[in-house]
Specification:
flat; alpha+beta; 7 helices; binds zinc ion; nine-stranded mixed beta sheet
Length: about 400
Amino acid sequence: MPSEPETPSPASNPEPHRFPCAQCGASLEYAPGTELLRCGHCGHENRIAGFAAPILEQDFRQTLRALATTTATRDNIAIHCDSCGASYTFDAATHAGQCAFCGVPVVAKTERHRQLQVQALLPFQISRDQARSAFRRWLGGLWFAPGMLKDYARNDARLAGMYVPYWTYDADTTTAYRGERGDNYQVQESYRAIENGREVERVRVVTRIRWTPAAGVVSRFFDDVLVLASGSLPRAVTERLEPWDLANLTPYREEYLSGFQSEMYTVDLEQGFERARERMAPIIRRDVERAIGGDHQRIHALDTRHGEIRFKHVLLPVWLSAFRFRDRTYRFVVNGRTGEVQGERPYSAWKIALAILLAALLIGGSLAAWQHFSAAQHRPVLDSRPYYGWIPAGNRSILARLT
Ligand SMILES: [Zn+2]
Ligand SMILES: [Zn+2]
């Protein structure tokens, strides 16, 4: 049974609600990995009341029609970045400062947003401290990173706990195809060759392909095809954070956002579905190739109908840091569920140059050593002093001084 389309709601992603501590009045914040809100000031804890409401998927086409006819808007205080296009919730700690997504300075301003309700989210599992040490480990494993980058990470203060917007789509697809099936067959072929200066006739077996027309219909149900609903993080980075444990999606509750920020979607429901189609297409092609069968397949035409499209708007947790280095933005993200790190990184040109030089020295050195040892086989070794012949001549005097 399709559920009623959600009227584009004015109530999504409002300025985050405050949850005052019953003991001291400070703000309670969601404690990653728990079902608790915790006071950072006095340690008082509040359990988040769970509810068993199912997470309903919405009908895609009905919702698009509803969106076209309503004008529900709401004034949100949001941080909007003109440089990368991200809009995300205002957080008392970041009135102004650097954009969490691209590192360029931004200020908070009031924006109008027409947004669909968030239906579900995956709460943070990884704490800020865990995220920071995951980031440091990742940096430690990077070769050729500029020293400045490592200093930045050591002193890094800006690690934003961000709920990033996603769409998930379900679709029942039916695809009519037309193409050709290729079957291998062997034939004997005679050819002329020169043997012992004489021309002779020989026979060989060659493989040929017999093409026959093929047509038919394949169908597949797609469940929860995930699409990032914003352009502020590079897709190459976010897709490497997959898979997400979507089976553990929790119905949306504002408590989980307390102490965190959330980004508003900028890829709308319809654009998101285009991306979902792109993600489905190669899977459908493989189905068609399998249906055509044979040893080779050619596809001339595909016509896919996406019936019964349903969607969810969900938020997924990432720890995020963006920094500027030599006029470029580099971003790294930590999966807020698993602690896995993905990122973009600068290279240090001089560290690479040094490594190439060292490698050249080593190769040159081992050549010299080999020459020496093959020569040494033919004469008795009387001298017990260390032998530096493998070191290029220019460096020998330095070593001699050191030993
Ligand atoms: Zn308190
Ligand atoms: Zn930005």
